[in-house]
Amino acid sequence: MGALNVATTWVGTTALGPGRRSVVWVQGCPFHCAGCMSPDWIPDVPARSVEPAELAAELLADPAVDGLTFSGGEPTHQAAGLAEVIRAARRTRDTTLVCFTGYRLERLRHRPPAPGVAELLDEVDVLIDGLYVAAQDDGRGLRGSGNQRVHHLSGRLADCGYDFEGRSRSTEIVVDGHEALLIGVPPPALLTVFDTAVEQVRQSHIGGDHER
Ligand code: SF4
Fold first, then answer.
1. CA–CA separation, 99 vs 17, rounded Å?
2. Whose CA is nearest to atom 7 of ligand 1?
3. Which of 11, 136, 142, 152 is most buried, with most CB under 10 Å away?
4. Is the keyword Transmembrane in the record (predicted)?
């Protein structure tokens, strides 16, 4: 199994699905949705290369984690590797899986864009599909905009009490030095504030470097 190309990860959050979850954001997306909250992860360029088994172990480092969320970037373009990640995780612990994709489920099933898509779909409990459309962002739910659909592929999370489509959004912001990571699906206004703050921090850092 080949290595994954991962933009970043986070271990232990409550902002991207039910329970306590670890998140993989893959690098590379063929879409260019206006207002995408992760534009740095759209280019299909080498980022962090990691083997599926190693990544699964990392994601389960927090013993309270009971779910994984795959986002990006476009997870289905690395479907074979991600299917191996969730299978490896499930060999260690009972783990649910939420996966985002810019494709529609019908396209994934009938014309998969990469090897391993059917394998990955076999593992997914909840698939959130479709492109982000800013004009249809109603500020609610785990899906970014109202056109995106929530598919309970396994039914396992259908009755868990988590309202994927209508819940109030929650986000976590992690700051590490000069980098900041926003975890979750933010209300539109928060994303604007976040981007502005990150840019200000970057500029102050550049200014500081010049002064030295
Ligand atoms: S599909 Fe997702 S990651 Fe890709 S451009 Fe659209 S919002 Fe961004």
1. 10
2. 36
3. 142
4. no
Q: How confident is the model at residue 212 (pLDDT cuts 50, 70, 90)?
A: very low
CB 3 within 8 A of CB 51: yes
Distance from chain centroid for Cα 24 = 6
Is the CB–ligand 1 distance for residue 42 below 6 Å? yes
Distance of CA 81 to CAs 86, 87, 103, 151, Å? 9, 10, 18, 22
Does the structure show a pLDDT above 50 at 32? yes
Decide: 18 in ligand 1 pocket, CB within 6 A. Answer: no
Give me the count of residues in the chain.
Answer: 212
- Centroid of ligand 1 to alpha carbon of 136 (angstroms): 15
Ligand 1 center–CA 74 separation, angstroms: 7
Model confidence at 1, pLDDT cuts 50, 70, 90, reads low
132 lines ligand 1 (CB under 6 A): yes
Cα of 209 from ligand 1 centre, angstroms = 33
What distance lies between CA 165 and its chain's CA centroid?
Answer: 16
Distance (angstroms) between ligand 1 centre and the Cα of 131 equals: 6
